[in-house]
Amino acid sequence: MNNVDYKKYFELLLSASKLINASFSLNQALEDIIKAATLSLSAEAASLLFVNQRTQTLFFKAASGNVADALKDQSINLGEGIVGWVAKERKSLIVHDAKSDPRHKSDIDKDTGFSTRSIIASPVEYQGEVLGTLEVLNPIDKPYFDENDLILLEALASQVAIVIRHCTSYAKLNQQNIELKKVINLEHKIIGNSTVIQNVLQRIAKIAPFDVTVLINGESGTGKELVARALHDNSPRSKKPFIAINCTALPENLIESELFGHEKGAFTGAIASRKGKFETASGGTLFLDEIGDMGMSMQAKILRVLETNIYERVGSDQPMQANVRIIAATNKNLKQLVDEQKFREDLYYRLNEMQIELPPLKERKSDIMLLVNHFLNIFSASFHKEVTGISKEVKDILMNYDWPGNIRELKNVIKAAVVLCDTDTLEECDLPEEIRTVNVEVFSLTGETGSLDLLEKKYIAKILKENNWKKSKTAKILNISRPTLDAKIKQYGILIQK
Ligand SMILES: Nc1ncnc2c1ncn2[C@@H]1O[C@H](COP(=O)(O)OP(=O)(O)OP(=O)(O)O)[C@@H](O)[C@H]1O
Ligand SMILES: [Mg+2]
Prior knowledge:
Blueprint: H1 3-22, H2 26-40, E1 43-52, E2 57-63, H3 68-71, E3 75-77, H4 81-89, E4 93-95, H5 107-112, E5 119-126, E6 129-139, H6 147-187, H7 195-207, E7 214-218, H8 224-233, E8 242-246, H9 252-260, H10 277-280, E9 285-289, H11 296-308, E10 310-312, E11 319-321, E12 325-330, H12 334-339, H13 345-351, E13 354-358, H14 368-382, E14 389-390, H15 392-400, H16 406-420, E15 425-426, H17 433-441, H18 452-466, H19 471-478, H20 482-492
Parallel strand pairs: 7-12, 7-13, 8-9, 9-12, 14-15
Antiparallel strand pairs: 1-2, 1-6, 2-3, 4-5, 5-6, 10-11
Bound molecules: adenosine-5'-triphosphate and magnesium ion.
């Protein structure tokens, strides 16, 4: 390269990086870079084409020159024309006279009225993946481009590749971030229109701002942790951590060091000192889940912290100041445990300054459809599917089921159904077997509403079930042939359970 080329080289790279820094959008940055390349190489035109891997074509992403606008709708197959060849072969190219090069595709010239003479083109590659082709056409002050021009173009192409990749990864991450935030917000929303849930919400709003302990009671999966989070989120402690600890999951001696932390060498295996949950939650809320499973000696230690706000790390006698709000939850009847002398009465009253009772889902059936739609939204979004509704049959099944696992069970059923669903509507076959089986059991003619088909389906399922799913026996009772029964089983999607 001679001195003039060096100057051109650095000027172009410098202006490209300035443009990249100043630009707010990828499209604008690319348009500006193409213009800068056209000027620096004293050319009539330049363009950047992107590869569409799905259709195996290239399309114009940015272009300069007097026919730039006409290029926007053009596309070229990968491997076709000079740009297609460069993208496919992943090799740079100088063409002195396009008209005599068999690779040149003259269609675009014909369409746009441009007369291509000399070309330099370079693949735009990032970590082994070809993203497109960068080309510059017709030097103004000489008959054709030379090697130095090509070196300059190649350097620019590698810059362009980095810009494209970084911008698209950034845009993708940004989008994912927006979607995740939506899902997280949804995840922590308490859904329900039933009077009981409305009362719970009102109670949360009243209790949350005050530093009182709260005991949340309810069967498994009724939303105890969700309520605890809502209490925290609506309290003055909301900017500080919410820390949950499950008292069932850990043996007594481990719970103590989990909660209070320990000093190095406090017990075998304590190779370093460690903060406890009281310390990590400092300023925030500590949620003691399944408090009914906590052993007696630990109960005494918790009571002491609640009364004095003082605790020590295991293996230390240095007093530490506790600054947490305690929320506890249980699916057991704590009062009964107190009566049976399995739970300290003084701790019970200390935890129970306020109480929130969460009723099982079967006692708030009017919330079921709201919850179903809520979970459909969450899982359609997180699995990138568009499941927007449920069939009448599915609704009947969900409304008739008893939900022993409460909302957690409903949530898991909808999650699995969204995964299995092939259309935009959940169908019976997307539901797990145990829930559908119950549907067969609820068959009764009294009060039955719905289509004749639904009735036929349920009747066939009932007879099948009563006859241990034996098809020939069922066909005989129904007075239809075996093939007819098979066809109906298939048509209605009846699941044969053996
Ligand atoms: N009213 C509600 N609205 C929306 N989602 C809910 C509701 N209640 C519970 N959930 C969801 O159901 C699941 C179970 O709730 P959570 O973990 O709070 O129940 P839990 O009572 O703590 O259960 P366990 O006793 O099994 O620990 C969670 O994913 C929660 O987000
Ligand atoms: Mg829980």
